[in-house]
Structures are given as structure tokens and as C-alpha cells.
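Subject line: Sequence and fold of a protein, written as C-alpha cells
Body of memo: The sequence and its C-alpha cells, given next.
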Amino acid sequence: MTVFTNRTIVLGITGGIAAYKAADIASKLTQAGARVETVMTEAATKFITPLTLRNITGRPVVTDMFELASEYNEEHIALAEAADAVLIAPVTANTIAKLAVGIADNMLGTVVLATEAPVVIAPAMNDVMYRKPITQLNIADLKSRGFHFIEPAHGRLASGKVGVGRLPDTQVILDALEKVLARAGDLSGKRIVVTAGGTREPIDPVRHIGNRSSGKMGYAIAEAARNRGAEVTLITAPVALPHPGGMSVIDINTVAQLREAVMGAATGSHALVMAAAVSDFRVAEPAPGKIKKQGGRLVLELIENEDFLPQLPDNLVKIGFAAESEDLVENARRKLAEKRLDLIVANDITAPDAGFDVDTNRVTFIGRDGAAEELPLLPKREVAEKILDRLAALFRAGA
């Protein structure tokens, strides 16, 4: 299941060249389990046909205020009441202006005026039109009244110019919509810091000491927490994954940078999930220039990195990971105590179908009482949900 499963999303499409991208948005929402009700302005039908959206969603498409296209009675009211969210993508400067003053001269404007569901808006227009004071004033007015805006992207525009005004990528839009829908989730109101990826300690300006962490587990936790209503800060070492939307992201490399980021983000937060693979050692004296081959061995002096988790405040719920190759439960229990954690997630890194690089994981939860709960092999996203179930339980218990 996803946050979209069995949700009714009214997808509004207005008349801009980016309207063709709405087909991909509708497709992704439908694949994620949403019931997509499409409402198009007359101008939008000049750029993409209602037939395209109907075939993608399996639902009638509304284009006219006075033509009943579905089973809904008093269609504008029924759609407005059925909506879990209204997403308008793309939205033009013209429609933004109409919404700002409450004009409802088409079905889309009428639905928005009649709904109590959250409205998410993704503008797409010429960069000059977007920057115009009246457009910015209208956007600010709508934001002040609770509308959720997704900032347009920078890139090549239909005019051939390069600037701000492109419709963001589909995933960015879906991430923002997920965050809005998740506000009623069981982690709503909680601020959660998640770390991910493997830290890198420099040898010289070119080389580093690292590990095999792909960041997939940490990113899955961050995305799942966002979808359950949390305000998420993701602190990530370099990984081959795109930054997820709907959260703050801080990029780091070294353990020192990780420590600084965690200490800063933890202030005022409710929980920390340390899914990052943190380097135990660093090079004592990294070379200022690239080390050249010397026809023999290179000997490096390594020193331990300081463990900063015990320095974090006790009122912060702390969840850590233990990647072990032997004595899994015993080593994890020791780490739980040493780092003063509320829960530790232990996994055997020697298993070929769990741990590094792969999309699945087999973990064991160990709480402060020392009891171990072994989970079967699961996709990392499902493991993330299990971890957050335990976190939600800790919150309910007053941890």
C-alpha cells in the first residue's frame, strides 16, 4: 500500500504547454492505487485530449460545467466532497489569479471553491509571467489561505529561454502531494532526523576510505516517515539516489560533518534514526595533494572516530543500526547499551539477500528490555514501516 491507495485525487489541468505532463502524473497516481478524477479547463483540452486522461485513469474526464461526465450528482459539489486532495498541475498564471479572487467560471474553479480538501498547486509558465509582482502577490495570497505550492523548476522553457517556470518532475510533485496527504498520519507533528549512506574519510584530495552502504535503507525510512506525517530532515552521505522531496536534505561526507549536522538537526527534534554507515576510523593526517605511486606499499595511520551518539539529549528517541558479520544479537545488544539507544536494528551483512546494495533486508529488532524480534526477509520499504511502527509505539509510551 501507498499513501495514495484508495484516495480520491482530483487532478486539475489548465491550459499550458506542460499540460501533456499531466498524463504521467495521472498514470503514476493510478498505479499507486489512487482514484483519479480529472477536471480540465477548456484551454487544457487544446494541449492534451480528455480521451488520453480517461484511458489512463479509467474514469470520465470533466471539461464542462454543464455536461455531466460521471455518476456524480451536482458534479462540482460531489467532486469537491469526494476529494482527499486537489492537485492542479500544471496551473497557469491566469488560473492562479482566478483562484486568488474566488472566480469560479469553470468546473475546476468551482471544485476548488467548494472543497475542504487540501489544494496542491504546481505552476508552469513563462519566467517573466512567474516573476511578475501580481503573480507573486496572488501566490502569496493563496499560500496565506492554506494552498500548497510546489515551486517551479529551472530549465529550458517553451519559449526557448532558460529560467524558472518549468513544471517540476512528476516525482517531485507526487512527493509534495504525499506530504500533504500524510498530515493525518501517526507521526504527524513529529520532527525526525534520519541519516543515510556511507561516510567518507579522505586519504588525499582524490581518494577516501568508505564502505558499501547504498543509502537505500535510510532513504526508505525518510520517505516512509514523511508519508506518515513527520517533518523529516535527511542527512545523507554520497549515494546514487535522487534526493527525496517533501523534506529537508543535508549532504555530508565525513563523520565530523555528520556529527555537526546531527547535533544541529537534533535540536528541537523528537527522534533520530541512524541508518548511515559511519566510518569507525579516519586517516590521521590526510595528504594535502594527490599521493603518487612510490613503487611499494602505502602505509596509512588510522585513528578512531569519536562516537557522538551518547552526547545527544536523553529526551531524543534514538534508533540505531548494527551491521554485523558474527554474533549478531550479542554485538547489537552491546551497541544498544553503549550508545544509549531506545531501539537497535541488527542485520547480518554476510547474507547475500540483505544488507548492502540490495532492495531487501532481514533484520532483528532489540529494544531497551533486551528482547529480540526477528523479522523475515522483507523489502527495505516494508522494513522501514516496521521500524516506524516501533518508533510510533515508543512515542505513545512516552519515550
